[in-house]
Amino acid sequence: MAFRKYTRCYIHTPGDKPFNDADLVNFAVGASLPGLLAALAAFLSGNMTVGFVAIAIQYAVTIRAIAKEWLYHRLVCISGDQCAVGTICMPPTEGSLLKSFDNDQYFNMRLMPHRYMDNYRGPNGSIPASLPTPYLGYFLPPANSNDPVGTPTWSLNLPAPEAGPSLDGKTELAPENDVFLDNFQGSQLIQPGSAPSAPRPGAVLQDLPYEPVAWDDQSDYLLLPKTTGELPRTANVTRSTLHCEAEGNFWQAMLDTAGLQGLATAAGAAAGAGAGAAAGCAIGGFFGPLGCAIGAVLGFLAGLFGGGAAGAYIAANAAFNSDPGDVNDANVGDAPLGGLADGDQVVVYGTHVYDGFHQGWHEIHPLKAIMKFPEIQLTSPYLEWNPDWDNAVNGLPPAGLTQTDMRQGLFSPAFTAAAVAVKMNWCSFLSNTFTTATLTAQMHAVNRWTIHPLVDGCAPTSPPPTTQ
């Protein structure tokens, strides 16, 4: 397959906690502590060689432990391979070594047929003046009535969450068009789980958190352009868009080169400790032999940690840049997809998972295939509901729909049927390429020529069998 796949999702059981950001430091410290204590004991006894060997071994062991957690105990399986149709609302961005700890390329997409204004403006509901009371929204308001909308904690309005709060308040008037309540792509792919005390059909992973994402979080685009009614960028918002990731190889490379990572760290620590001890003695020497000794010890420790960190960074940076992810991977052998931009309409196909590292959201990971909608769509045009649709302004609706259908969106059976048809049509172009029959046919010699069958391929002796 053209796409890269290094991670494996796992089956969640109640009470299990995926590898996550909040536990990363404690996990790393716990994994590395035995070797650090052994190295410290060796240094105190004057056995420098044993100390640096202990650092190398323990760092390699720690890297392997973290890599295995990242690759095999971070992503929770939800519903297998899925296809989605939507609009890019955050162009592809590559993760950074020091911030996201991986080199996946990722983007967000707003699921069809939702508008930009359907995005949630906060994880906690407020009561729009135009709606009857009591109205709470999909999530409960802040516990303290004086707190602004968007204040944690993150709690569902049970047993039946209501729509919103959307950016312009119109989704609340048409709950069928709320991204979490649409009984379509949003409900299927990004709806948060429900509590065990109030299970809800279609909801999954009841005991796992589904955290809000801040405006200024790199993992959630700033949703430009800013519009009236949005909260400050420091406010929390819901994960109302679908996150998609094309896998990079960073943690697989770290796992494969754990020994080299340990050697690089130990070498950096040794070089830094030696240089630090010499510099410390030279500085402390102004105060005599005792000053030299104290300076050497302090310089040794500072150089040990600084040099080790530098060695670890250099080695990790090499792994990070060895083979990064690329959203064009799924098009290897074909014409490149080209740059994805804000507003591009696309079809994606990949594995539907819950990413536990970020305290929870649902995403496509890995991205296995992606395709842009053509600029001219004749048979299955992209659909987006518009509560203000006016034929005189917007023209005739697509797919034989009426002005009323466009204004009602997913409340209209005709609009819903058209949206489902668009998704099924475009998804068939991607999902069919991953069927067993297609993959088997691709392995036949007659289908594996590069130049031309007459030059480097085979011609079938008989017509291929038809399938029912």
Mind explaining what this structure looks like?
- With about 475 residues, this protein is α+β, with helices and mostly antiparallel strands.
- The protein has a domain of about 120 residues.
- A 5-stranded mixed β-barrel has the order 1-2-5-7-6. Strands 3-4 form a two-stranded antiparallel sheet.
- A hairpin with a 6-residue loop joins strand 6 and strand 7.
- It is elongated.
- About 5% of the residues have low confidence.
Secondary-structure element order, as H and E?
A: HHEEHEEEHHHEEHHHHH
Share of β-strand residues: 5-15%
The coarse silhouette is: elongated
Residue windows where pLDDT falls under 50 for at least 5 positions: 216-231
Helix content: 25-40%
Radius of gyration: 27 Å
Indicate the mean pLDDT.
80
The end-to-end distance, rounded to whole angstroms, is 26 Å
Individual helix count: 11
What's the total count of β strands?
7
Strand pairing plus helix content: what structural class? Answer: alpha+beta
Largest sheet: 5 strands, mixed, barrel
Q: Order of strands across the widest beta sheet?
A: 1-2-5-7-6
Short description:
The chain is an alpha+beta fold and 468 residues long.
Question: How would the blueprint of this fold be written?
Answer:
Elements: H1 21-44, H2 48-72, E1 75-94, E2 105-111, H3 185-189, E3 213-214, E4 236-237, E5 242-246, H4 250-256, H5 258-284, H6 289-320, E6 345-355, E7 362-372, H7 391-394, H8 403-408, H9 413-431, H10 436-442, H11 453-456
Helix pairs in contact: 1-2, 2-4, 2-5, 5-6
